[in-house]
Amino acid sequence: MYETWKDSAACKGRVDLFFAPAGEREEPRIRREALARAVCMTCPVLLPCRDHARMQGELGFWGAENDDDRRVARRSLRRMAS
Ligand code: SF4
Question: Where are the domains of the chain?
Fold first, then answer.
């Protein structure tokens, strides 16, 4: 199913910022994710994007969260639901 919120994504055309290149080391990852986060903070669809990524278990940087942020968020949501 196509999600219409993607039409308003501020990250269109910025795959380089939102997905890690092969073999990326920690320092470049931190710099790349800081730039990606800055884009997300201007994005009108941050919340639906974040929800989508959490629900679908996406990989990469979505809704101002990286994979680790999303794992932590999903764990605490599961804890709250139980
Ligand atoms: S919140 Fe970030 S990753 Fe999600 S659509 Fe907006 S800019 Fe892209």
Answer: 13-81
Longest Cα–Cα distance in the chain: 39
Q: Distance, CA 43 to ligand 1 centroid (Å)?
A: 6
- Count the Cβ atoms, other than its own, within 10 Å of residue 28: 12
pTM of the complete model: 0.91
Q: What is the per-residue pLDDT across 10-54, written as a single tens digit (0 to 9) for each?
A: 999 999 999 999 999 999 999 999 999 999 999 999 999 999 999
Nearest CA to ligand 1 atom 8: 11
Question: Which pLDDT score is estimated for 2?
Answer: 73
Helix (H) or strand (E) run with residue 51 in it:
helix 46-56
Q: How far is the CA of 1 from the centre of ligand 1 (A)?
A: 18
